[in-house]
Amino acid sequence: MARLSPTMRWLAKALRPGGARNRSATAGAGAASLAIGAVLTWRGELDVTVAIAAALVVALAALRPRATDPVSVSDRRPAELGLAVDLVAAFPDPVILVDRRGIVMQANAAARDMLPVIKDRQPLSFALRAPEVLDAIGEAASGAPTTVVYGGRFATEPTYEVRLRLIPEAAPEEPGSGLVALFFRDLTTERRIETMRVDFVANVSHELRTPLASLLGFIETLQGAARADAAARERFLEIMRVQANRMKRLIDDLLQLSRVEMKAHVPPSSAIDLVAVVRHMTEVMAPLARERGVVFRVATPEAAEVLGDRDELLRLVENLLENGVRYGGSGGAVEVEVARIETEGGAGRVELAVRDFGPGVAPEHIPRLTERFYRVDVAESRTQGGTGLGLAIVKHIVGRHRGRLTIDSELGAGATFRVALPAAPGGAGHPTVVPANDLERAPPVT
Fold it and tell me: What CATH number is given for 6-186 in this structure?
């Protein structure tokens, strides 16, 4: 058990019973206070306020009348369990009190939310199907602090760490009395984060290992058999340049993703003309479009201001355009449209839609397109020079801008990526709604 603070030691001393004959449930509840205090210390959540609140509850519980006839723990009404009941009810995490036979004596609201079928005076096994936890009750009842972890057997099952502690009764004339407290701590989020971290490190390592191995192989070749072969040297150097650029793009994307995530809690507040951003990026992406035989068809109003970060919006539009050119370029065109939409009682929103006419995406892949390193076709993605992070960056930028990203696609019919962003109050284009047939049709960028 974790070391108790001076405040909790004072509380334990204050709760020491005056004698066996006149002892009340306050003594047993005092032990419950120590157990719960130890768990709070372990969680790093114990402070003076918590200790004072516990002391007040102890004082109030001591004033309640208690039954004086000797009865077993299992035969007592929940109200007669004393301060332990009050502390259990106030604990933020799920806590269950059982006797040595595993009969539920008390459960707080969090425990009842976790196990909706749990009932007092019934075996815990009726509500909790976790043999490792049920077996640990007997071990904890002997006085040995016990910790078990259960759950997490499949992706949707939560994982809990359970700490079991004995809360002894203060009456020596009642051998075998006492309660076992089960403190549940939800580890689901921590485990998922750890799994994501492991997967992320594995993916990054894999993405870097392939071009590095290629670079090392060509360097060894140039140092050996191809040392005097000018034609082979030029060919190998070009391949090495491509692989080095692949690593550079991956590192740049990782840094961009990290920067966006660091600022995710601070929404941008500058008024940025999204139309100007779109037109600028179509010009920047024009060489890649020409190389792939793709034409940009742009439809925008004269201006449409949003609350945004210009650098991030440039990256958002760049990633969507590049995605359309690289993976939907077989359709020969990528349509880009910006529209202002009015909403009641607000500044409205601005929607950006990027549509390609490529092979499209199967429905089962759409929910995962914005995951890091997720690719529908791994070989095709690497051939196109993708890092697997483009749409993940788009999702995080949209999230920071308090916007919404939707993806519509059918196999053989291309894909449409729509981004809705809050319009700048009083900015250009608000509150007038521009119908699609009134949008300025810019000439194709070739």
Answer: 3.30.450.20
For strands 295-300 and 333-341, give the pairing.
parallel
Structure tokens at 215: 């670079």
- Over the stretch 313-370, which tens digit does the pLDDT of each residue have? 999 999 999 988 988 877 788 999 999 988 776 668 999 999 998 888 888 888 888 8
Per the model's pLDDT, the better-predicted residue between 229 and 146 turns out to be 146
| Residue 296: partners with Cβ closer than 8 Å, 6 or more residues away | 282, 285, 286, 289, 321, 333, 334, 335, 336, 444, 445, 446
Omega into 431 within 30° of 0, i.e. cis? yes
Q: What confidence tens digit (pLDDT) does each residue in 86-102 have?
A: 777 778 889 999 988 89
What's the token pair of residue 116?
């909706």
Do 84 and 91 meet the contact criterion of CB atoms below 8 Å apart? Answer: no
- Whether 6-186 and 188-262 share one fold: the answer is no
Domain with residues 188-262, CATH architecture: Orthogonal Bundle (1.10)
How is residue 145 written in tokens?
């602090």
Ranges 21-25, 31-35, 182-186: which has the least confidence: 21-25
Cα 94 from Cα 83, distance rounded (Å): 17
For the chain, the domains span 6-186, 188-262, 267-441
User: DSSP string spanning 232-273?
Assistant: HHHHHHHHHHHHHHHHHHHHHHHHHHHHHHHTTTS---EEEE
CA end-to-end distance (rounded Å), the chain = 71
User: Position of tokens 């009810």?
Assistant: 89
> What is the Cα gyration radius of the chain?
32
CATH H-level, domain 267-441: superfamily? Histidine kinase-like ATPase, C-terminal domain (3.30.565.10)
- Give yes or no for a contact between 280 and 314, defined as CB atoms under 8 angstroms apart: yes
Instruction: Specify which residues 409 forms β-bridges with.
Output: 415
Q: CA 180 to CA 377: how far, in whole Å? A: 54
Contact 328, 415 (CB under 8 A): yes
Provide the 10 A C-beta neighbour count for residue 365: 15
State the chain's mean pLDDT as an integer. Answer: 76
What is the rounded distance in angstroms from the CA atom of residue 133 to the CA atom of residue 123?
13
